[in-house]
TrEMBL record, chain A:
The gene is Gjb6_0. This is Gap junction protein. It comes from Polioptila caerulea. The keyword Metal-binding does not apply. GO terms for cellular component: connexin complex. Its main location: other.
TrEMBL record, chain B:
Residues 42-75 form the Connexin N-terminal domain. Belongs to the connexin family. This is Gap junction protein. It comes from Polioptila caerulea (Blue-grey gnatcatcher). One gap junction consists of a cluster of closely packed pairs of transmembrane channels, the connexons, through which materials of low MW diffuse from one cell to a neighboring cell. The lineage of its organism: Eukaryota, Metazoa, Chordata, Craniata, Vertebrata. Coiled coil: none annotated. Residues 146-213 form the Connexin cysteine-rich domain. PROSITE patterns: CONNEXINS_1 (PS00407), CONNEXINS_2 (PS00408). A connexon is composed of a hexamer of connexins.
Amino acid sequence: MDWGTLQAVLGGVNKHSTSIGKIWLTVLFIFRIMILVVAAERVWGDEQQDFVCNTLQPGCKNVCYDHFFPISHIRLWALQLIFVSTPALLVAMHVAYTRHEKKRRFRNGEKIDIEELKNVKFHIRGPLWWTYTSSIFFRIVFEAVFMYVFYYMYDGYQMPRLVKCEAWPCPNTVDCFVSRPTEKTTFTIFMLAVSGICMMLNLAELCYLVIKICMKEPRKTT
Amino acid sequence: MDWGALHTILGGVNKHSTSIGKIWLTVLFIFRIMILVVAAERVWGDEQDDFVCNTLQPGCKNVCYDHFFPISHIRLWALQLIFVSTPALLVAMHVAYRRHEKKRQFRKGDQKCEFKDIEEIRKQRFRIEGSLWWTYTSSIFFRLIFEAVFMYAFYFMYDGFRMPRLMKCNAWPCPNTVDCFVSRPTEKTVFTIFMIAVSSICILLNVAELCYLLTKFFLRRSKKAGNSKQQPNHENKEETKQNEMNELISDSCQNTVIGFSS
């Protein structure tokens, strides 16, 4: 059970997305998940081993590392990607429920074409529009929350070379040096940029859906 | 044999679950197993390497680590997820047994058997009623028991759900009392709380599913009492229609919902 399985799960949902939604999914998989797996995880792989403190005091390095990196970037990104992907499952559940209802109506004797039921692609209107729009809204909220959490936890997006630590049992103030700070800063900014692009795509999709529904309303009334 | 294989096995069971059961399975795979594999295992990866004790005494670190972490969180979670997933196999076995019986009927050339070929029997989706209802309900009951037992085991073994930074150890051969420092305590606390929260959500889903099944059972009973005059032919036709629809729906559902491959 890994990122590949998530891709299989979300691939099924893709069928009912708008074009912007499909682009968003591609960006998510190629520029975020793939980058995370093939590159970022190696960069952060030795983050604690090569976190070096200028002291012989046992336990000081552990405590300082824990103080400055309460949750590692990699774990935060993994959580962000999982949370951002899962609202799409709301849409999948809605589609499954709609199919279940049609099946019940068929069972009760209503005339529904079996072939149509098998191959139907649901258009995004009615209650499905609301589900789809809420899923995009939740995506945007999760993206924003995680971007803020990053900013708040790490005081910006730059990884410093040196951190000064005074937590017990470190004697007085101890200099601790972070492993690969420049590479980490580069990847943090890259992931932030792609996160920004994904948010733009979600906003564009939201606007598109809202405009679509607004254009349909005047046609109905005329 | 790894989590992927479990995913394949349980995906097959998914076809016969209720909607709440399907949601439960999704939560299990995405928010528990996936988090365990892609995140939690890395966090706990260096738990013994970076467990540092303030002493030069050989063996002291080993003994203290063993004393404070009798079973690692990761292993407990893996055991929990396996135990919690396996009651679903009771349902799979029951379904397989029913299919086997129908195949036997078909081979004997039984007139009552409504299927045209073996393929239809293989693809049939059974409704949760009769003995299958009892099997399904017991499986949910066992899931609840296992979840609760493991949550209690965590709480009991680690004195709560928080990972301390410092542990004071005086097991032999450590001289007097030695300070030992845990690796990544904050990150571990965050993930422990996350896994506990998702575990609780799963318990709630199981309770909801149990209530749903009980309600359905009592409703069906009262319907049967009211409809006892219905003719047997009509029931057979309904069942055939139902089975056809179930086939089609389960085929189309496989492409849509959770994408579990059977």
